[in-house]
């Protein structure tokens, strides 16, 4: 396998890429790396890749005059490649350790012309529908391949040579679309590996990724015409061509003239964008079959675009820019070691205008624009939702699917979202220690863009119920749900900012003291703590005090209480240490929660006033 990396003035951002290339599980003899420097002039990048190539036998560094875009260096890499497959990696991204091995195994067993490994986005948008399952063999008709148009894929080298597939060269946009769409349409077999994240698509903190550069409408849509020309050359009029064109019509055209960016553009730039999109639409996107399957918002936009209604498109974009996710948390509680979550959400503007209204038995896109056909406004597509956990201070994220139940709330389309979070097995393993913030993501295609919001508060009003700390998993993991100062939900995992001893005390914790054998007493207390199972591995100890003030510490065993939010803790102390103050703590000189004691038989203890 050959990995081709087009390199230009990457500086320090190339290091994760290089590290990932030499950390592959494939033996060094079974893959090669070709780094093609497109005339870097930063005095760092060229020297770095030369040093890297000198250190690794399977790495080659090439230098070419600056061409202005990745197409030329990628083509040079294809020409130098010796592997059965050529895989394209961007210089500021990275590969997972088993990426090449797993992708090659799948491609080889299917004799695939194209192999696509799952892509994870770190501040970058990536396909989601495509990677919901593996595809051993598929085409554009049998899998949502058109969702993924970036070059981060493997291509059988003989297949590329057979059809003369190469990247357009020079300073331009969408060169990857031209290359990828021809490969898709000529391929007999495309394989998609979705059960292992192969590629990490990373947004640089200096916003220096090539794809972040502003669009110049005339050039951009001129480049898109080249990709459209490839699709029209390789397909006959009909369903296959419509399917391919639909992706560009929705993503590169309609969304460009209806989204938040369009709403915020300067008037002159906005008009230039609209003019180029409409011109292209009337030239090549004339079949009703292209837009008929689209979501309601896009169908409304298509009707406005084809009708030349520029001002109404601006209004539509302004409404999209105001859209937010209203929510109310209904459930946030422990059950059998899992946090059960339920919330009602609705897509609407800050002024309360819903994105979808319900009339009779139909949901309609509330375009807030007169003269739009009801047929275009009918919502037909299901909504999807996820609970997203973000590890504060990092790019680490986990997404958990939520159940989605449509509701009607005062004439508006709303949804009840339900799901469970198991901190001991999220993503197949326990959550790492730290503070995890919670977000809801709703993708309601008919209503517009995907909406994301923190979970917990609604316009400053806390809606999340109080939830106790918990010990989950084996060995027990301390998880402390809490509400932030702004009313949002977070989880402290591993006592990074919160202490279990502080979380379990409720200001009125009572301990019952009963005689036991050999001069000892049993101390039992009921605490605000969730346990999935009994455990003696608990980071709390009972503290008793002898008359001379000496502390006596005893281990604690814990049992689930009758209420999932309560646990019963038991420990044994010398009788004389249990007649005064009692407390729970983790270690000497650490915070403690005092216990009020009640007597049994001849033992008495005064309520603690400390």
Structure description:
- By secondary structure, the chain is an alpha+beta fold.
- Helix content is 25%, strand content 34%.
- It has 15 helices and 31 strands.
- The strands form 4 sheets. The chain has an 18-stranded mixed beta sheet that branches.
- A hairpin with a 5-residue loop joins strand 14 and strand 15 (397-409).
- Helix 6 packs parallel to helix 7, helix 7 runs antiparallel to helix 8 and helix 7 runs parallel beside helix 10.
- It is globular, with a radius of gyration of 30 Å.
- It starts with a strand and ends in a 12-residue tail after the last strand.
- 43% of the residues are buried.
- The model is unreliable at 600-610 (pLDDT under 50).
Which descriptors apply to this entry?
610 residues, 18-stranded mixed sheet, alpha+beta, single chain, nine-stranded mixed sheet
Q: How are the SSEs placed, and which strands pair?
A:
Elements: E1 2-7, H1 15-22, E2 32-38, H2 45-55, E3 59-64, H3 71-80, E4 85-90, E5 94-95, H4 99-110, E6 114-122, E7 135-138, E8 154-156, H5 157-163, H6 175-186, E9 190-202, H7 217-234, H8 239-254, H9 260-264, H10 267-284, H11 288-291, H12 296-306, H13 310-322, E10 323-335, E11 338-349, E12 356-359, E13 362-365, H14 374-377, E14 384-391, E15 397-409, E16 412-421, E17 434-443, E18 451-454, E19 457-458, E20 461-462, E21 469-472, E22 477-483, E23 489-493, H15 500-504, E24 510-515, E25 520-531, E26 541-545, E27 551-555, E28 557-560, E29 566-574, E30 582-585, E31 592-598
Parallel strand pairs: 1-2, 1-4, 2-3, 6-9, 21-25, 24-31
Antiparallel strand pairs: 4-8, 5-9, 6-8, 7-9, 10-11, 11-16, 12-13, 14-15, 14-17, 15-16, 17-18, 17-23, 19-20, 21-22, 22-23, 24-25, 25-29, 26-27, 26-30, 28-29, 30-31
Helix pairs in contact: 6-7, 7-8, 7-10
């Amino acid at each position: 396998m050959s990995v081709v990396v087009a390199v230009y003035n990457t500086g320090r951002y190339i290091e994760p890429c290089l590290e990932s290339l030499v950390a592959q599980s494939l033996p060094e003899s079974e893959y090669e790396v070709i780094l093609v420097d497109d005339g870097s002039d930063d005095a760092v990048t060229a020297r770095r890749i030369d040093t890297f190539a000198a250190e690794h036998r399977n790495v080659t560094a090439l230098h070419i005059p600056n061409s202005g875009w990745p197409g030329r260096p990628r083509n040079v890499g294809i020409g130098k490649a010796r592997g059965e497959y050529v895989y394209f990696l961007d210089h500021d991204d990275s590969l997972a350790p088993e990426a090449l091995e797993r992708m090659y195994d799948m491609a080889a067993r299917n004799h695939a012309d194209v192999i696509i490994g799952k892509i994870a986005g770190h501040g970058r948008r990536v396909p989601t529908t495509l990677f919901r399952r593996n595809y051993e063999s598929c085409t554009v008709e049998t899998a949502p391949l058109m969702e993924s148009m970036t070059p981060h894929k493997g291509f059988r080298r003989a297949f590329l040579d057979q059809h003369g597939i190469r990247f357009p060269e020079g300073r331009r946009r969408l060169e990857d679309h031209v290359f990828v769409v021809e490969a898709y349409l000529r391929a007999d077999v495309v394989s998609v590996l979705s059960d292992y994240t192969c590629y990490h698509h990373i947004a640089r903190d200096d916003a220096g990724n090539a794809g972040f550069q502003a669009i110049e409408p005339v050039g951009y849509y001129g480049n898109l015409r080249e990709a459209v020309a490839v699709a029209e050359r390789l397909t006959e009029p009909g369903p296959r061509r419509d399917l391919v064109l639909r992706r560009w019509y929705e993503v590169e055209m309609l969304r460009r003239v209806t989204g938040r960016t369009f709403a915020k553009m300067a008037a002159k730039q906005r008009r230039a964008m609209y003019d180029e999109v409409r011109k292209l639409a009337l030239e090549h996107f004339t079949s009703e079959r292209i837009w008929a399957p689209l979501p309601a918002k896009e169908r409304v936009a298509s009707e406005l675009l084809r009708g030349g209604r520029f001002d109404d498109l601006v209004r539509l974009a302004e409404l999209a820019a105001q859209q937010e996710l209203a929510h109310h948390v209904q459930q946030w509680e422990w059950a059998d070691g899992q946090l059960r979550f339920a919330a009602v959400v609705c897509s609407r503007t800050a002024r309360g205008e819903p994105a979808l209204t319900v009339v009779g038995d139909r949901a309609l896109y509330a375009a807030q624009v007169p003269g739009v056909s009801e047929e275009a406004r009918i919502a037909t597509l299901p909504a999807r939702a996820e609970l997203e956990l973000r590890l504060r201070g990092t790019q680490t994220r986990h997404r958990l699917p939520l159940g989605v139940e449509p509701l009607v709330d005062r004439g508006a389309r709303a949804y009840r979202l339900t799901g469970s979070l198991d901190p001991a097995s999220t993503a197949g393993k326990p959550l790492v220690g730290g503070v995890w913030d919670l977000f809801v993501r709703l993708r309601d295609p008919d209503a517009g863009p995907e909406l994301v919001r923190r979970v917990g508060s609604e316009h400053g009003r806390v809606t999340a119920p109080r939830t106790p700390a918990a010990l989950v998993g084996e060995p027990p993991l301390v998880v402390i749900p809490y509400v932030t100062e702004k009313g949002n939900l977070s989880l402290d995992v591993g006592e990074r900012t919160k202490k279990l001893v502080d979380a379990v005390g409720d200001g009125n914790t009572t301990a019952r003291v009963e005689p036991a054998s050999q001069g000892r007493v049993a101390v039992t207390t009921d605490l605000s703590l969730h346990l999935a199972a009994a455990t003696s591995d608990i980071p709390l100890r009972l503290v008793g005090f002898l008359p001379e003030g000496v502390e006596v510490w005893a281990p604690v065993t814990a049992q689930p209480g009758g209420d999932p939010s309560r646990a019963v803790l038991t420990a044994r102390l010398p009788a004389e240490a249990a007649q005064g103050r009692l407390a729970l703590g983790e270690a000497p000189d650490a915070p403690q929660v005092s216990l009020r004691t009640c007597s049994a038989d001849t033992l008495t203890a005064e309520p603690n006033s400390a």
